[in-house]
Amino acid sequence: MIKIADNVSLKPYNTFGIEASCNHFVEINSVSDLNALLDSEVYKRNKHLIIGGGSNILLTKNFDGLVIKNNLKGIEVVREEGDDVFVKASAGEVWHEFVQWCIQRNLAGLENLSLIPGCVGASPMQNIGAYGVEIKDVFDCLEAIDLNDGTRKEFSKEVCNFGYRESVFKHELKNKFIIISVTFKLSKKINLNTSYGAINTELESMGVKQPGIKDVSQAVINIRSSKLPDPKVTGNAGSFFKNPEVELSEYDRIKSQFPNVVAYPLENGNYKLAAGWLIEQSGLKGYQAGNAAVHDKQALVLVNKGGAKGDEIYSLSEHVLQTVFAKFGVKLEREVNII
Ligand code: FAD
Ligand code: EPU
Questions:
Q1: Does residue 52 line the site of ligand 1, with CB under 6 A?
Q2: Domain 235-338, architecture per CATH
Q3: For the segment 9-19, what is each residue's pLDDT rounded down to a tens digit?
Q4: Given CA atoms 9, 182, 336, 103 in this order, what sign does their dihedral have?
Q5: Tell me: the pLDDT tens digits for 106-149?
Q6: Does the domain spanning 75-187 belong to CATH 3.30.465.10?
């Protein structure tokens, strides 16, 4: 049975803690709930917004439509092939709890992605990534329901077209499907990825000599907790902008003017610039405008200092974009989904 509520506050459903309402709100606990919803008049008459943990959205106004909160639960091992173990998680599973579930069973592959907020169903949307790993590295397939006709489709990695914070679901298939489960190819064989320097340093200071996946997970949790604001305390949606990719000639121009620029070479010959560095060097780290601010420990994160409106955060992001562009000639791109 689905219960559609009217005029609901979305404040508990977005990690920015923005007060905004929606006309209709429904929680989906099963695929049959979803089918019932797709048949309903409320669904047919309204535009919709799907949410999981609400940790990558900025609500700039009240949502004039139906919000669908995906609560589908369940984790299962679907098959094993040698050392490979295929684990399927339903979309409403909390991401970090799922990662812990895998670590407890000694299944490697997701440990670097510990403590990312949100739900499993949103993880393919922007191909979540951290500390040298993206989900595309361990992604097998996902199941989604076509919101037009209710049919179930399976998507392979190729079709998802993953890139840095990108997938087909942010572009051609935007708002067309609801993801109901994701299957990951994990491994019984431990092959740690500690290439991201800070992990090794953290493992050392933890006194760990022979790390396992639980140690790497703990190292990542420690590093993240030291610089990223906890949404339960301070509203935010993680990095507000992407790290921009520039061509070599553009990188050379910036480097000649700003020799300390933080940048990473990419396989295609381009460079990825650290947007947090660009923002900090623009004098904006800790900058506050009204109730919106640039986080004082990580300039790539915008925060709600208490009672901020979504458009206040958005205006701050515009100010950041313009200031960085004026100083470096680099155009930042927002990572957070603006609603
Ligand atoms: P939501 O915010 O609810 O939704 C995000 C988008 O996906 C929306 O467009 C929504 O419509 C769509 N969507 C959600 N669920 C579904 C579904 N089932 N089917 C179809 N569409 C759906 N991200 C990283 O990549 N790396 C990080 O290191 C990282 N660190 C973060 C740290 C903090 C403190 C915070 C607050 C956020 C961070 N994020 C990070 C961003 C965020 O956690 C991820 O993008 C996460 O995957 C969002 O999940 P969610 O369930 O909260 O998605
Ligand atoms: N930096 C600064 N000042 C700052 C912040 C960063 O100078 O205020 C420079 C430092 O040199 C630092 C470098 O930028 O070494 C990189 O910073 P950090 O390691 O914190 O990572 P990031 O590039 O800012 C990205 C992701 C994060 C992810 C981390 C770890 C994006 C947009 N962000 O941040 O993802 O957790 O790497 O892998 O790619 C998210 O997407 O929401 C998110 C938090």
A1: yes
A2: Alpha-Beta Complex (3.90)
A3: 999 999 999 99
A4: positive
A5: 999 999 999 999 999 999 999 999 999 999 999 999 999 999 99
A6: yes
